[in-house]
Amino acid sequence: MGDAEKKSMEKGLIYTSLKGVGQGVSGPGSNLPAEKMQWWEDQKFGMFIHWGLYAIPATGEWTMFNQKIPAEEYAKLADQFNPKHFSAAEWARVAKEAGMKYMVMVTRHHDGFALWNSPASYRHFDSWETAAHRDFVKEYTDACRKAGLHVGLYYSPLDWRFPGYFDPRELPDNAALLKKQTYGQVEELMKNYGKIDILWYDGGWLAHKGSDADAAWFWEPLKLNAMVRSYNPDVVINPRSGMVGDFQTDEGGADVKGPIIPFPWEKCLNLNATSWGYNKAQNLMPLKQIIDMLVNTVDRGGNMLLNVGPDPDGVIPPAHVERLKEVGQWLAKNGEGIYQTRPGPFQPVDDFYGATYSGNKIYIHLLKMPAGDAVIKLPPTGQVITACTVLHGEKVKFHQDATGITLNLATVQPDPLVTTLVLKVKGR
Ligand code: JFZ
Description:
Elements: H1 3-12, H2 38-43, E1 45-49, H3 63-66, H4 71-75, H5 77-80, H6 88-97, E2 102-108, H7 136-146, E3 150-155, H8 163-166, H9 172-191, E4 198-201, H10 216-219, H11 221-231, E5 236-237, E6 248-251, E7 265-270, H12 287-298, E8 302-308, H13 318-334, E9 342-343, E10 353-358, E11 361-366, E12 375-378, E13 385-390, E14 397-401, E15 404-408, E16 419-425
Parallel strand pairs: 1-2, 1-8, 2-3, 3-4, 4-5, 6-7, 7-8
Antiparallel strand pairs: 9-10, 10-11, 11-16, 12-15, 13-16, 14-15
The structure holds 4-nitrophenyl 6-deoxy-alpha-L-galactopyranoside.
Residues 19, 61-62, 202, 251, 276 line the site of 4-nitrophenyl 6-deoxy-alpha-L-galactopyranoside.
InterPro entries: FUC_metazoa-typ (IPR016286), GH (IPR017853), Glyco_hydro_29 (IPR000933), Glyco_hydro_29_N (IPR057739)
Pfam families: Alpha_L_fucos (PF01120)
Domain Glycoside hydrolase family 29 N-terminal: 36-336
């Protein structure tokens, strides 16, 4: 991200949907150069997985804190956590069927329970030392790679078991234990599970206050991530360790609007709106809303990380699997205008259309058909359009002059979700 952009963003806060853009510490070699981000920007669509002890009460991943459950009490859930139908291969199969190209699994959330064999875990609060006696991170990373998906790990430095987290200045010894656990566990994750492609920190903010950047004095993320890169030099790191991220994050289900964003960013949101972790209260995202969110994100230069919350047995709810399958069916037809593309050359028009390009093709994504005369007018572009068709479909009449490109959509059979048109560009 160039200094000019950082300054303009900080000044104008142009991209209000992106929290703390460009904030955080950085230094020599702390972040990846643009060329090492291209593979990530090519992927576009990933699966986020929130799974852990909190799946048992089925009231979301913040259950321990929201219901003020004492750590000793909450820890007893580990005795019940012994999933019989957990299959990382099935998670990977569902992700691939949905058209997803990478996965990010929660390895440890704010409740402190680690889903791997973690000697660095405070009081051995992990799935190896408890009822399951399994290393789920090992099973996940192996299955992810076997399925040809890129491997991402989510890690929460925040651990509610440590009162020092809530008052690091008054309880420096306990806070130091928390920091020691974080450095020990991040090192285990970076050295014991092969090449990790994405590291997704969360919960860097101290005492649930301020920003991740405000907590950099405590976590020393330049030191932490120098260790991370000593094992995985090209790992893509998110913006929540207190260090500037290799990409920016827009979290939640708010619609994606506005201009193309000129730096790597990721929209992360829930398939089930009630919580990231498994919840008996289900509010499944409609298919049209998912496709619109994906297209709106990609047409503005972002990736979309869509979250599932498997049940206590490690099973992704069948309704979620079915919905993801439907997403995959749209991508099977329209993926050419999504994967390995870049946003533009036309700026998106909110709630109407957006564009991507790749090679000698420009892809127009129509969220809805134009009203009235079935004509859409695109702004002028310096390129000469030689043909226009519906992707894998019929020809579309068009006229190009200095005022722009007029597409006549009267004969177009719209896709029930989002229609993709292809403009062939001369000479490229
Ligand atoms: C955090 C977690 O607390 C939550 O449980 C989930 O894991 C989610 C992915 O991340 O929640 C956040 C973190 C940051 C913001 C909002 C919710 N933020 O910066 O707006």
